[in-house]
Each structure stands twice: as C-alpha cells, then as structure tokens.
Design goal:
mainly alpha; 4 strands; 64% helix
C-alpha cells in the first residue's frame, strides 16, 4: 500500500527517473501477493514446506538453466527478424519509455497498443527493469524472459504438483529431482524462448487458474470473494497477454460448463452444481465486462476479426496431420508416459474430475485452433500445462508401481536419462548413434544455434543501399520474404545499437490476404529482389512478392521500369539483386497491376486499391 501511494505521488509530480522502478515493483508485489494468497488459502505453501530442504537442488538447476540459456544465445551469430525480434524490439522500446517518460504518456501508449495492435506492449511490462539492469542485447532479453516468466511458472507448477501427488509415498529427494528434471528440461517450454518469444507470460496465469479450479474441487461457490476476484483478474490478464490465449479462455469456460452439465445429471446434490455454475458464470461475465468497458476495441477485434481467413496462409494439413505434428512436437516417449498419467489421473478419484477437464479442454483447444492456424512453437503453450501434468503423473505412477528399492532406483535413473537425452538432442546436434536412433521418439521442439555465414555480405548490401540513398529522400523496397532475405533482416542488422540499419527502407507486404498490395512499392526508387524468388509461405499466399519479383527479374511487365545495378550473394544460394527505377509508373502500369490483382483477389477490394500514394 505504501508503495502504491508513493507511486501515485511520483506519477503526478512526474519524477521520470522513478517511474519505471516503482511501476515494476508495484506490479511484482501485486503478483506476489496474489500468488501467495492463493497458494496459502489452499494450503499449498504449508504442504510444500515439507520439501523446502531440497530446494538447493532446484536452485542449482535454475542456475544451470540460466547458464544454458545465456551460453546458447551468446553462441548465436544471427540477424533476428520478424517474430524472433519483434518483442525484443518492443521490450527495449517500452523499457526506455518507462524509464524516461512521464507516467501518463506511458499508460496512454500501453493502453493504445492493447486496443489497436496485434502485438501489444502488455507482455513487455515486467521486462523493462531487468533489461535496464542487464542491457538490451538479445541475450539479456532472453535471460529476462526466462527469469521473469518461465522460472516463476516452474516454481508454481512444482509446488502445485507436489500437493496433487502428496498421497504417493515417494522419497522427497526423488520428488524434487524428478520434478526439476522433467519440468525444467522440457523443450516445448524452452524452445519458444530461445527463438525469441515471450508468450510464456501466459503460463503464469494458466497455472493460477488451474490451481483455483483443482483446489476448489470445481465447487467455486465455496471460494472466498478475494479468490474469485483473483480468478477474474487472472482470466482478464491472460486475455491481454497474447490474443491467441483466447482459445484457452474460451475452451476453459466451454469445458467447465460441460463438466457441470454432466455433474448435474450424475450427482445427487444438484444445488451445489447449480451454485458452482452460477459462480463461474459470474467470473466469466465479470471478465467479459472488464474487457468490454475498458478494452472494447480489443474485445471486438478478438471476437469479430476473420482470423480464419487472415491466417489461412499459415494453415496447412488436415486434423490427422496436425495431431501427428503435436505428438512429434512433445515427443512420442513423453506423450506415451503422459497417456499413462492420464489413465491414472482418471482412475484416481482425487484427480478424476481435473484430469477429465484437462483432457476435454485440450481436445477443444486443438480442434478450434487448427481451424484458424497451425500450431507454431509458441502456440503449444496452450497445451504445455496439460502435457506436463499428465507426464509427471505418469512418471510418479511408474516409479511407485515397483516396491523394490533397487528396481525403483534403476527405473528412476532410466527416466532421468531419457529426460536429459530428450533435452540435449533438442539443442545440440550430435553424431552419437544411440541418441540418433532414439531421436524419432524424442521431442521435435528442437532449437539449434542460428549462425549466419553471410553477415559480411549482408553488411555490404546494407552499406551499398545506404550509399545509394544517402543525403536523398530515395526509398527502398525489398521484394523478398524468407529467412535469408527480407526487409526486416536488413532493418534489424545492427540491433540493439541501431533500430534501423537502412533508414530509407519501406516495410514490405508479405502475406497477401493480411497485408494487401503495397502502394509504397510504386514510389520506391530502389528495389531489392531475391533470386530465386524468396518465399516464407506457400507461393499462392505470397503472389504480390512472386508476381512483382518475377516480372522484374524477367524484365517483363513492370520490369521495364527498372535497371539492374548490382548483386550480393547470400547464404542458401540466394542472390540479392539491386535495381533502380528508371521511369515512374504511369496510369497504364497501375491499371495493369490493379486488374491483375483484382482478378486474383476479387473478395478483397479494399486491400487491392492500387494507386500512387
């Protein structure tokens, strides 16, 4: 309370140097209070005190985890771009804004980003202070995400799972070793982090929501008002972290209503079920009203935007193929053990309802999500808690099945070996035959150090483009969309020291149904074309890049407007060809392009209003 009063005082007198520190501390203290209150009310903290003597093991593993993350990112020689750089850039921007600007300006920009931007500043809030301390390098950003979001999730999950399996008579050292190893060495959680994603922030709210649900035994009407408020705040906060967590939230309520409907018909005490039904309805309605009143634009876009069509370029494969991809992502061995845990969870009366809930919700998430998009590295966070929960349950059941101490020890050693190998092969390429023979059964959530061999060539290309436009208002457009060459790669070459290595470059349109035709291309003086034509998605979803690049390379159609200047040879046998415009576009050329793209996308007239800016 004292900190909040001090924060408000500082905000009004606009003492900029303290804004970021007080703002971060207040959020951290509030989160800490909510978490400890929930865990104390459900006796999770008191139950866990029995195992605190073993936390030096967890501490060692966390330190080793930080060493691994830091060494991994330090070994990379890469140009981060698109999703691997976007939130890094935004975190730097918000950190500087928060520590250099008055409070009102900070709140306005944060609020505006939540309402109108697909990628809001909300998930970067807790990273601003750590980045100010650690620096703004990609390594610092990754370490900050790991320690602010992922490690707290590890702690909360391990404390929760300890309560769940408290009935199992297993040595506490065995518990902590298994938990730490199985959870912390879980590639589907670490790999998105190493790629550059900070979407793991959602896991913090997911675990809190699950804890409330499990510990209340689905009888939410018995909860304290403070806990219900925390549940409402957790669901609302989860919605604001990343839009696609909306799939988790929607499936949460759908599954819960289904569970209550089933319980209504099979339970004798129907009044309790009705009371719980009403309680969760109040929670859902309250979260909805908060979003409607304070974040109306965000809510409308989330509900009514046609993401099925917008992200069609990212969607491929049928349900069976996506299910196979999911199994391979987590690993066949992991999924097999998790299925054992699912069976045990349903068989055990204490965990039956919760296990069924996780199963049904996971199915709903999977089916609904693949209708809109394919699962990316970060999207599997929607299912990580569920898989981890059943994985741990499976491990504990397998170990406790054998009463002979010698058998248990051997089995524990084997499981730990599988966990370590599973983790190792996800990040280190090896020629060891025994590991390679098991690799099809292990997690495919791999992430190897990214090392570009053409950094000098990219630097030379950037220098040449800057020379062509230096001291002028000439603009550059890049007709290329791949991991080798794109406008974002050139722009981000000098991050974090320089935000834009090519100041005169335009932002390119990459996805036809999302971005439409780039009218700025028509007035660009310099055009960089990838040869062969560079696609990151299906060519049929990137026709703007494909058609324009092909005509320039072939000197046909619009190609007559350009003159070849010079080539730069990049990795993956990609030639970056630089052209300059020798005559401006006339109405005939514009009509030619308009007709071509109107015929291709007649259902998107607003995206293909081709004209000179």
């Amino acid at each position: 309370m004292i900190l909040w009063v001090f924060f408000i005082f500082v905000a009004f007198i606009k003492v900029k140097i303290y804004i970021g520190i007080i703002f971060n501390l207040n959020i951290l203290i509030t989160l800490y209070y909510i978490i400890t209150k929930i865990y104390s009310d459900f006796n999770i903290l008191s139950n866990f005190k029995k195992h605190t003597s073993n936390w030096h093991i967890f501490l060692v593993i966390v330190i080793l985890g930080n060493v691994f993350v830091y060494s991994f990112t330090q070994r990379e020689k890469y140009i981060y771009f698109w999703d691997s750089a976007l939130y890094w850039e935004m975190s730097i921007e918000f950190s500087k804004l928060l520590l250099q600007t008055d409070f009102i300006t900070v709140i306005k920009q944060l609020y505006s980003s939540i309402l109108y931007q697909e990628y809001s500043l909300a998930p970067t809030i807790l990273l601003s202070l750590p980045l100010k301390i650690l620096g703004y390098s990609h390594s610092s950003y990754t370490i900050a995400v790991y320690n602010m979001y992922i490690i707290p999730f590890y702690i909360l999950f391990i404390m929760f799972i300890t309560k769940v399996i408290s009935d199992y008579k297993i040595n506490s050292y065995t518990n902590i070793i298994v938990f730490c190893s199985a959870v912390i060495l879980f590639p589907p959680i670490i790999s998105p982090l190493l790629y550059g994603y900070l979407d793991s922030i959602g896991l913090l709210f997911v675990v809190l929501i699950y804890v409330i649900l499990y510990c209340s035994e689905f009888e939410l009407y018995n909860l304290k008002y403070s806990t219900l408020v925390f549940l409402i705040l957790s669901i609302t906060a989860l919605a604001l972290t990343r839009r696609w967590y909306g799939f988790w939230i929607a499936s949460f309520f759908i599954t819960l209503y289904l569970m209550y409907l089933i319980m209504f018909f099979i339970k004798d005490n129907k009044i309790k079920v009705v009371k719980s039904f009403c309680s969760i309805s109040v929670v859902g309605l309250s979260s909805f009203l908060i979003l409607l009143v304070f974040f109306k634009t965000f809510l409308i876009k989330s509900i009514f935007n046609n993401y099925h069509d917008i992200y069609s370029a990212y969607r491929s494969g049928n349900m069976a193929q996506n299910a196979e991809a999911l199994i391979l992502h987590f690993g066949i061995i992991i999924i097999t053990i998790a299925l054992v845990g699912l069976f045990i969870g349903i068989r055990n009366y204490k965990t039956r309802k919760f296990s069924l809930f996780l199963l049904i919700q996971s199915i709903i998430i999977f089916i609904s999500f693949i209708r809109v998009n394919n699962f990316g590295l970060q999207h599997y966070y929607l299912l990580c808690f569920q898989i981890l929960f059943f994985f741990i349950m499976g491990i504990i059941e397998i170990i406790s099945f054998f009463e002979n101490k010698k058998y248990r020890t051997c089995l524990l050693a084997l499981i730990l070996f599988i966990i370590v190998v599973n983790f190792t092969q996800a990040y280190i390429k090896t020629n060891i035959k025994i590991i390679n023979s098991f690799s099809p059964l292990l997690s495919h959530a791999t992430m190897y150090c990214r090392i570009r061999q053409d950094l000098e060539a990219v630097h030379n290309l950037i220098s040449y483009l800057n020379q062509l436009t230096e001291g002028t208002d000439k603009k550059i457009y890049v007709l290329s969309s791949s991991i080798t060459l794109s406008d974002d790669i050139l722009r981000n070459f000098n991050l974090p020291e320089q935000k834009n290595a090519v100041p005169n470059i335009y932002s390119a349109s990459h996805v036809d149904k999302r971005d439409g035709f780039p009218n700025q291309f028509l007035i660009a003086d310099i055009v960089v074309v990838g040869n062969p034509i560079q696609y990151i998605l299906r060519p049929s979803d990137q026709r703007v890049i494909g058609i324009l690049a092909d005509e320039i390379l072939q000197r046909e159609g619009i190609g007559v407007h350009y003159q070849y200047l010079k080539s730069f040879y990049l990795e993956n046998n990609v030639e970056a060809k630089v052209y300059k415009k020798i005559n401006p576009y006339n109405q005939q050329s514009i009509n030619y392009l308009r007709n071509k793209f109107y015929n291709l996308y007649p259902e998107y007239p607003s995206l293909y209003e081709i004209h000179l800016p």
